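Take a record.
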Amino acid sequence: MAHAYNPDFSGFKVEDLAGEEINGEGNLFMLAPVAHKLYDRLELWFELQDSYGRSHKVKVADRYGNMLGDLGIVWLDPGVDRRWLEIHRSLCLISQDLSV
């Protein structure tokens, strides 16, 4: 079965994350290597905490989908695109639900 990417669904183009842009400031920010690895494996995500879009709770799960807890609150730069964070958070939660 072939899978197709539909840019109309999310409003994003896959090309926006190509190469160096995966770590672009608008995507998120440069994470420490361990945190970046957890983020890439859908084991670390950010949950919005305030109506201004700056305060986020850092959540962590293990590879089996078990919640490990909250790492604290972070305040993100206004240049960070919150849509990417919400898409990533949704993928993390889906990944947890599918874990065995």
Notes: The longest strand covers residues 67-75. Residues 17-98 form one domain. Helices lie at 7-10, 33-40, 82-98.
